[in-house]
Write a structure and sequence with these properties.
The protein is an alpha/beta fold. The protein has one domain: Aldolase class I (TIM Barrel, Alpha-Beta Barrel). It contains eight helices and 13 strands.
């Protein structure tokens, strides 16, 4: 479905409001169109796995899907968003081109089956606690549910308390399963629960990890981005500014051209 183009999945962590979502989408479309990348706009309508019950979660499925449909209509973009419960799969499939399975939920059989049965492309994030070769069981669940339109996503591995590390050979291992592998550069620099009641992170490392992942053979990148990450309502510490996306993607595509 990607015609061999470099895949870019990017957008804000969560839908904060309609205006800022549309602004980010418009700028990312401009950047990715100029680079001839296969671009998918990503934003969550509900962050069901926030550290604290008091954290902002988003507008909810109904309003969130309305906003994502406006993005689709206004800019002709393909949409990625995540689901957390099986009942969400079908209504989300009416708007989204890719249904994303969160890392913590990637072993949930009912969720995978419901997503697979929509017929949409499924992007599954590898859990922080799984070995890359264990993703074969996730893939098998999707295939047995009648769906081979699959992408796998590396997003870091738990390494002690509040810490993630990235093993670049994970990309190599998951590619052996026969599907595109995406590297999530922004969640990979998280420090889960690092602020006590919220996740912290270090966006300084994003460019280094992303470029290393492309060199290791990643078929695309996942980037959460915002015009003002420090004021973002979710995952601000590991998001990068929209103003940094273009230069980073140019470097990624240059690296990719050297490895093909």
């Amino acid at each position: 479905m990607h015609s061999g183009k470099f895949i870019v999945i990017a957008g804000p962590c969560v839908i904060e409001d309609e205006e800022i979502t549309l602004r980010i989408a418009e700028e990312l479309k401009r950047i990715c169109s100029a680079l001839d990348a296969a671009f998918y706009f990503k934003a969550s309508f509900d962050k069901a796995n926030r550290t604290s019950i008091d954290s902002f979660r988003g507008p909810g499925m109904k309003r969130g899907l309305q906003i994502l449909q406006k993005v689709k209509d206004a800019y002709g973009l393909k949409i990625v968003t995540d689901i957390h419960e099986p009942y969400q799969a079908q209504p989300v499939a009416e708007v989204a081109d890719i249904i994303q399975i969160p890392a913590f939920l990637c072993r949930q059989t009912d969720l995978l089956v419901a997503a697979a049965k929509t017929g949409k492309c499924i992007n599954v994030k590898k859990a922080q606690f799984l070995a890359p070769w264990d993703m074969k069981n996730v893939v098998h669940k999707l295939e047995e549910s009648g769906n081979r339109n699959i992408m796998l996503c590396e997003r870091g591995t738990s390494f002690g308390y509040n810490t993630l590390v990235v093993d670049m050979t994970s990309i190599v291992e998951m590619k052996k399963l026969g599907y595109p592998v995406i590297f999530d550069g922004t969640h990979s620099v998280q420090k889960p629960g690092g602020n006590g009641t919220s996740t912290s992170g270090n966006r300084e490392y994003v460019p280094y990890l992303v470029k290393a992942a492309v060199a290791a053979g990643a078929d695309g990148v996942f980037l959460e981005t915002h015009f003002n990450p420090d004021k973002a309502l979710s995952d601000g510490a590991n998001m990068i500014s929209v103003t940094r996306v273009q230069d980073l993607l140019i470097q990624c595509m240059q690296i990719r051209s050297c490895t093909e």
